[in-house]
Design a protein that fits this description.
Number of helices of chain A: 3
Number of domains of chain C: 1
Order of helices and strands of chain A: HHEEEEEEEEEEH
Largest sheet of chain A: 5 strands, mixed
CATH class of chain C: Mainly Alpha
Radius of gyration of chain C: 20 Å
CATH superfamily of the largest domain in chain A: Cupredoxins -  blue copper proteins
Strand content of chain C: under 5%
Strand content of chain A: 15-25%
Strand order of the largest sheet of chain A: 3-2-1-5-8
Order of helices and strands of chain C: HHHHHHH
Helix content of chain A: 25-40%
CATH architecture of chain C: Up-down Bundle
Shape of chain A: elongated
Number of domains of chain A: 2
Largest sheet of chain C: none
Radius of gyration of chain A: 26 Å
CATH topology of the largest domain in chain A: Immunoglobulin-like
Structural class of chain C: mainly alpha
Structural class of chain A: alpha+beta
Distance between the termini of chain C: 49 Å
Number of strands of chain A: 10
Chains: A alpha+beta, B mainly alpha, C mainly alpha
Oligomer: heterotrimer
Number of helices of chain C: 7
CATH class of the largest domain in chain A: Mainly Beta
Distance between the termini of chain A: 12 Å
CATH topology of chain C: Four Helix Bundle (Hemerythrin (Met), subunit A)
Shape of chain C: elongated
Number of strands of chain C: 0
Chain lengths: 261, 589, 204
């Protein structure tokens, strides 16, 4: 994993919708800087020009400030633009434009204290049923070994493989408390609420090895609730899937083995 | 600390019947007093103690953040093997410090000082009243508050430690947390009750007990701010009280208000009925907690207005605009709460609504800040200690407010939610914002409360040291947030993006410890001036508002003669007058 | 005891038209509306999110909860509001003994209400229906329990006015009458909350 890409500002963006978010950030911070510098200059000017000194007196009559009305108006106009011109379209796309079921890679992500479980549906594209009563050390999601669609499912812990260039639809949930599925380089974040499956999507633009960091206080292990995010080339992703698929049905064992890559 | 209550003059006030003056016992005079000034000082001193205590918790946390996993010299051993095994902070202790720092600063520190302290002491004086409308209720509200505080602190001794689910106490985490969380909830019930009693008192007092001639448009802005604040406290706190009750039931009676079905904790299925929703807590909590942040800022804006008018020697610019803005702000504060919940899976309709209201609420804040900056124009500015703090408030509040914009817009909030950017944002508003305004208030009204002035030189040292340290603490946090660093992390170096900004953690921690040391001149000044400060008369600042008509300190009933108000609150530098201030209470002369 | 005399403690303020205490109690009631409102909203959210209500049983709310007893209690509280008004009216008409009779009736009716609630709760507990049983019982016990605590608070205040507090009649009857009126406003509010609670928990 390349440490050098992490500095004091936004990390590289490797997602399809990230550019618009980064653009909004940029516009916002220029706007904020403009306002602050503008106010600041006037502020410092007043502090110097109107400091108390012998022979100097204050002006009782209120200064007619036409400029302030224009500044307020300008601020309102910019905020409307930021809201409806920049933020809302990005947000609506992020929330509503969930890619077509057939073309996307589906993953179910279940957070728990203090690990990330990733459930892939395998070659049949269907998720096996899961039951809380089946949860055990090597079956963290309680995938039912008897359920046919579940026989080719892959479950990994703290290893999130996704192919580059393909949309990925993730349904996030939690076993216990609220966590938050957060991958900074992909510009995605979604709270994982127990009892709910919340879909989000993204599409990676560059392969690489990145990190997922839980972003909602979830207990004493919150700080170490880290997962490896491996954005694979299509070939590498296929290879990973094949290597991690559970053995064919003659083997009695049900739980999917995980290989740390 | 004892406050000398010399009754300069008999302080009969303007009571109609001459009541007999029997001497009160020490307990009735200084402890169980119904006098708003004593109660104000009780709140103020209690709050200052808790501000320092809450800050100490953070100074401990900053060691772990700057040097993760390193034993803390000397202090580490003192805190015991559970909290600091081998002198190294345990993650659960870190989480306790975090939750308690936030809770204590907000509920035991800033609000009690701003409202309980300054509100109680100054408001009746500024409106020319002999006391609050319900003096005994006032006393009751302090004596419900203090046990709440003590219970909160004692919760550190509970098995498993104090509350450790953030000051936000989100379930299910808070539902399954150790006993300290139950104590947190019980303390909050007491503190909320105290606040409700107080807010009733403020509203009735301000509406009913104003002196002759003191119409609403002649009220000092500080009083307007406290009136709006009181309404926020009155109406916004009960839902949190309700939520606390529900969480108590979940924890103690086994209900599932916030627990959905099928929870598996550490491999075991949780044996509860289920059917609850963790988001219900969030809605109820933030319904209070958003107005709460305006409770944190409004009294501060009030203080800044008073100090700026007094030290620029001219009326506040845009007084009416300020009043309209602060009232509008109060209303809007009730309809923005879910901007804290954008990442919970909220639908687009709801999130668009809350984004819009959040953008709208930024407008009155911008207006208020602009009015204050405009107030400097054309002034004759004296840079006294209170004025330094009040002036610095302006750019600090600007930074805090402006950095709220990326957080209030959902698209940028995707990235910035729950990062250090948020921490930088709200701390700029509350720390070099509100806290500076509160310091300004202390320096400004200390002479009124004690009859002595604080030392100016020490005040200036306190200001400059604090101002510089604040920047070193909170400015780097924006960079940490932009780098994607999550908040509430015991060890940020687990993550590559955390390691990338770890150097800043050392800077921030040094700044925090520096800020701690910077309070020494203030503490020394506070106590030293009580003993040997320069004595002052009623109006050492040559100010115009009513509190400066009373003796310093005022006696029972506050005023020697019934105050009458003849003019607007900030008539400084009126052309043609002999002095550069025309007090409200001075008849034409 | 207050050292300083506060204006408008007894006489109505010339602009607002009410004395301080009455203003105070209205503000308190506003906060109570927010408190019970938050709980009612929680009830609505929990109930609408549940697949069926009451959860975990085929019975209706009106079959689980005792509607006849609830109806009786509603009548009891409404009557107690009437006796409360009569108590205040007696004060206005200068009749202390009448006041005591009507206030006594109010307190008695409030106690009857609590006794009925005791039997209701005891029956539920007997059948192992504690708040933890499911969210129906959870919200039922919280709403009626908090309401019950408010009844207790009212009983305490009204009993005080009936006994030690009534001494004020001798020195300042107008002030005393105001206190009775304020207590009455609180009592009507507690009654009103029940009038919302009863249909929404028992009947719907």
């Amino acid at each position: 994993m390349d440490e050098k890409i992490y500095g004091w500002w936004l990390p590289p963006d490797v997602s399809v919708h990230g550019a618009k978010i980064d653009q909004l950030m940029s516009v916002l911070h220029w706007f904020m800087a403009l306002l602050f510098v503008g106010w600041g200059i006037f502020f410092v000017y007043c502090l110097i020009k109107f400091r108390a000194r012998p022979g100097h007196a204050a002006l009782y009559a209120p200064v007619k400030a036409v400029a302030t009305k224009y500044i307020e108006g300008f601020v309102v106009v910019i905020e409307v633009f930021l809201l409806f011109g920049l933020s809302t379209p990005v947000w609506l796309a992020y929330k509503n434009d969930v890619p077509d079921q057939a073309k996307a890679v589906h993953v179910r992500v279940v957070g728990e204290q203090f690990a990330w479980n990733f459930h892939y549906p395998g070659k049949d594209g269907k998720f096996g049923k899961a039951d809380a009563s089946l949860i055990s050390g090597d079956n963290p999601l309680g995938v039912d070994p008897e359920d046919p669609p579940g026989k080719d499912d892959i479950v990994t812990v703290n290893q999130f493989h996704v192919p580059v260039g393909k949309p990925v639809v993730v349904e996030v949930s939690s076993k216990d408390v609220i966590h938050s599925f957060n991958i900074p380089v992909l510009r995605v974040k979604q709270d994982t609420i127990p009892g709910q499956q919340i879909p989000i999507w993204f599409q990676a633009t560059k392969p690489g090895h990145f990190e997922l960091a839980c972003a909602q206080l979830c207990g004493l292990g919150h700080y170490r609730m880290r997962a490896d995010v491996l954005i694979d080339t299509p070939e590498d992703f296929a290879k990973w899937q094949a290597e991690n698929a559970p053995p064919p049905p003659e083997a009695p064992a049900a739980a999917a083995p995980e290989e740390k890559k | 600390m004892s406050v000398e209550h010399h009754s300069h003059g008999n302080g009969h006030g303007h009571s109609q019947e001459g009541h007999g003056h029997h001497e009160l016992s020490f307990w009735r005079k200084y402890v169980f007093s119904v006098d708003h000034k004593v109660i104000g000082i009780q709140y103020g001193v209690t709050a200052l103690v808790f501000l320092f205590f809450g800050f100490t918790l953070m100074m401990l946390m900053r060691w772990q953040l700057a040097y993760p996993g390193q034993p803390l010299p000397v202090i580490g051993k003192l805190l015991g093997e559970t909290a600091m095994p081998g002198g190294v902070m345990a993650p659960e202790f870190y989480n306790q410090l975090g939750a308690m720092h936030g809770t204590i600063m907000v509920f035991l520190g800033v609000v009690p000082l701003a409202v309980g302290g300054f509100g109680n002491f100054v408001v009746p004086l500024q409106i020319g009243a002999p006391d609050m409308a319900f003096p005994r209720l006032n006393m009751a509200s302090y004596w419900v508050f203090l046990p709440g505080c003590i219970l909160m602190i004692l919760s550190f001794l509970a098995p498993g430690g104090a509350a450790q689910s953030g000051w936000t106490s989100y379930p299910p985490l808070s539902d399954i947390a150790p006993t300290g969380q139950t104590l947190w909830l019980l303390s909050m019930v007491l503190i909320i009750t105290s606040s409700l009693l107080g807010s009733i008192n403020f509203i009735v007092t301000i509406v009913q007990l104003r002196a002759k001639g003191l119409s609403y448009w002649r009220l000092p802005f500080f009083v307007h701010a406290q009136l709006v604040t009181a309404f926020l406290l009155l109406l916004a706190f009960p839902p949190l009280e309700a939520a606390s009750l529900l969480q108590l039931m979940d924890r103690v009676a086994g209900t599932s208000f916030f627990l959905p079905s099928g929870l598996v904790i550490s491999g075991e299925q949780l044996k509860v009925a289920g059917g609850g929703n963790p988001l219900l807590w969030q809605h109820l909590f933030w319904f209070l907690a958003h107005p709460e942040v305006y409770v944190l800022i409004l009294p501060a804006m009030g203080i800044v207005a008073e100090v700026i008018a007094n030290n620029t020697r001219k009326p506040i610019w845009g007084y009416r605009l300020l009043v309209y803005s602060v009232v509008f702000l109060g209303f809007m504060s009730f309809v923005v709460w879910a901007h804290h919940m954008f990442m919970t899976g909220m639908g687009t309709t709801m999130s668009t609504f809350f984004q819009t209201t959040t953008m709208i609420i930024s407008i009155p804040s911008v207006v208020i800040l602009t009015c204050f900056i405009m107030s400097l124009y054309g002034g004759n500015i004296r840079f006294t200690a209170p004025m330094l703090f009040a002036t610095a408030f302006l750019p600090m509040f600007a930074i805090g407010g402006l950095t709220g914009l990326p957080l209030g817009l959902t698209a940028s909030d995707i990235y910035l939610h729950d990062t250090f950017y948020v921490i930088g944002h709200f701390h700029y508003v509350v720390a070099p914002g509100t806290l500076f305004a509160l310091f300004a208030g202390v320096y400004y009204w200390y002479p009124k409360a004690t009859g002595k002035r604080m030392n100016e030189a020490l005040g200036k040292v306190h200001f400059w040291l604090s101002f510089v340290c604040m920047q070193f603490i909170f400015m780097p946090m924006f960079f940490q947030g932009m780098a994607g660093l999550s908040r509430r992390l015991y060890d940020p170096t687990v993550y590559a993006h955390g390691r990338g900004v770890q150097a800043l953690n050392v800077v921030i921690s040094l700044g925090a410890w520096g800020l701690g040391l910077s309070q020494i001149p203030f503490i020394v000044n506070f106590f030293m001036s009580l003993k040997s400060g320069v004595r002052v008369a009623e109006n050492p600042w040559n100010a115009t508002t009513l509190e400066w008509a009373a003796p310093s300190p005022p006696g029972h009933g506050n005023f020697l003669t019934e105050p009458v108000v003849y003019r607007e609150p900030y008539e400084y530098s009126v052309p043609g007058k002999a002095t550069d201030y025309s007090p409200q209470f001075q008849a034409e002369g | 005891m207050s050292e300083t005399a506060i204006p408008w403690m007894v006489k109505p303020h010339p602009v607002t038209g009410i004395p301080n205490g009455k203003f105070g109690i209205w503000l308190f009631l506003a906060s109570e509306v927010m408190l019970f409102g938050a709980l009612f909203s929680s009830y609505v959210l929990i109930r609408t999110a549940a697949p069926h209500w009451p959860p975990g049983t085929d019975q209706l709310s009106s079959e689980i909860l005792n509607v006849p007893l609830g109806t009786f209690n509603t009548a009891v509280l409404i009557t107690s509001s009437i006796t409360m008004v009569l108590a205040w009216a007696s004060c206005k008409m200068g009749n202390l003994s009448r006041f005591k009779m009507w206030m006594g009736a109010t307190v008695l009716l409030a106690v009857v209400f609590l006794v009925v609630k005791y039997f209701e709760y005891a029956d539920k507990f007997h059948h192992d229906h504690f708040p933890s049983h499911d969210n129906f019982f959870a919200i039922y016990f919280v709403l009626t329990g908090l309401h019950g605590l408010h009844i207790v608070g009212g009983i305490i205040v009204n009993t005080y006015l009936l006994t030690a507090g009534s001494k004020m009649w001798n020195t300042d009857p107008e002030h005393f009458t105001n206190r009775v009126e304020n207590a009455g406003l609180y009592w009507h509010f507690v009654d009103l909350v029940w009038i919302f609670l009863f249909p929404s928990l028992y009947l719907l």
